[in-house]
Design brief:
With 376 residues, the chain is an alpha/beta fold. Helix content is 35%, strand content 14%. It contains twelve helices and twelve strands. Helix 2 packs antiparallel against helix 8. The protein starts with 6 loop residues before the first helix and ends with a helix.
Length: 376
């Protein structure tokens, strides 16, 4: 069986470094709020081209902290509308609705899989928009987003899947790297992400000093100073062990992306089945980091079963569009635009993620051949 991703294989080349880092932290006696996390924050801010970074406990917490901080700053209020692409991991919506904000599900583009900027469900109540760089594809349209930004609409990046990606056009700081395009970005280091911790971890990246300071306080029981609680915060800190592991993995970000990109191009050349739609390889200076390699087929479930019976494990990201998840049935905090979201729903029924994390060229050739022989 070719697995979808075997994390012990992913981390194998750096086992020794990880073990040494673990020993260093264990012996240091400092497990929270120490130098590992501070050093990691510096490197991550630099990688994204942002001024500030706050290391936190997960990608979901990073998103929640951004919304909470904007609420404390008075930039967002309960009931404000936040536009979120319907095809994303549920965390993007959960962060919005948990803060009492209204998630407005938006259509996606069937070639980029990201927000369709021509069909944004804008209204007089829109106060923020979340650009999700899905599958490692930069989701950006300077013209539209700068216009919204000038109107005071916040642009937040969900950069959980696209660390190291580059958009074809610049963001508000003149930077093209994801994580620095908008007002603030959330990053996830869930173990299966391109840069994964050995547990849960995440980060908030921004060039806004006020936002960074608030996020840090909110993630630390609402205190800037010990035992002085200005806000009703939470405990969302990244521990030193994860920070130490991530300091080892972060410098590999671009190498990992490059390897995945090479594999994507190999799939692109070898898959020739006329009914299988391959993902677009972006031009115009955009750099994708290929968190997933996602093909489409009208009879996706049959194709998936064909691959499974021939020894290839695949995944579906994601089988149910967020607005159709049970948790949002009848929930007034999630809105769907008039006319529904046909593209998002079609994609949910057609997408199939092929192994990309650790597969060899020979395995890619084998998987492609199995796909080309599919007669379902
Ligand atoms: C993984 C992911 C998250 C959540 O990150 P966690 O670290 O798992 O909490 C949020 N958004 C997207 C798009 C993701 O892929």
């Amino acid at each position: 069986m070719i697995p979808f991703q075997d994390l012990s294989l992913t981390n194998k080349p750096i086992f020794r470094d990880l073990e040494e880092a673990a020993i260093r932290v264990i012996r240091s006696g400092r497990y929270i709020n120490g130098e590992e996390a501070r050093a990691f924050e510096k490197s991550l801010a630099q990688l994204c081209g942002a001024r500030y970074c706050v290391a936190v406990s997960s990608g979901l917490d990073a998103l929640r902290l951004i919304f909470k901080a904007y609420m404390e700053m008075g930039r967002l209020r309960e009931g404000d509308e936040v536009i979120v692409p319907a095809n994303t991991f549920i965390a993007t919506f959960l962060a919005v609705t948990e803060c009492g904000l209204k998630g407005v599900a938006a259509e996606v583009d069937e070639t980029t899989f990201c927000l369709d900027f021509k069909r944004l469900p804008l209204s007089g109540k829109t106060r923020a928009i979340v650009a999700v760089h899905l599958y490692g594809n930069p989701c950006w349209d300077s013209e539209t987003l700068e216009r919204l930004h000038r109107k005071g609409i916040l642009v937040i990046e969900d950069n959980a899947q696209a660390l190291g990606a580059v958009a074809a056009c610049t963001g508000f700081n003149g930077i093209r790297t994801t994580g620095s395009l908008g007002d603030a970005a959330a990053i996830s280091f869930y173990p299966a992400k391109n840069v994964g911790a050995l547990g849960d971890a995440g980060a908030v990246v921004t060039s806004d000093p006020e936002l960074a300071e608030l996020v840090r306080a909110l993630a630390n029981y609402g205190a800037k100073e010990k035992y002085q609680h200005e806000f009703c915060g939470a405990n969302c800190r990244m521990d030193e062990l994860q920070a130490a592991f991530l300091r080892i993995k972060l410098p590999h970000t671009h190498v990992t992306a490059h390897e995945r990109s090479r594999r994507a191009r190999l799939y692109d050349r070898l898959i020739t089945h006329p009914e299988v739609i391959k993902p677009e390889i972006m031009e115009n200076e955009a750099v994708q980091v290929w968190h997933q390699y996602v093909v489409r087929h009208p009879r996706r479930d049959l194709l998936r079963e064909w691959l499974r019976s021939n020894g290839v494990a695949t995944e579906i990201h994601y089988p149910v569009a967020c607005h159709n998840q049970k948790c949002y049935a009848g929930n007034p905090l999630l809105a769907v635009p008039e006319g529904g979201l046909p593209t998002a729903e079609k994609l949910a029924s057609e997408v199939l993620s092929l192994p990309i994390a650790d597969v060899s060229d020979d395995e890619i050739a084998e998987i492609s051949k199995i796909i080309n022989n599919f007669e379902g």
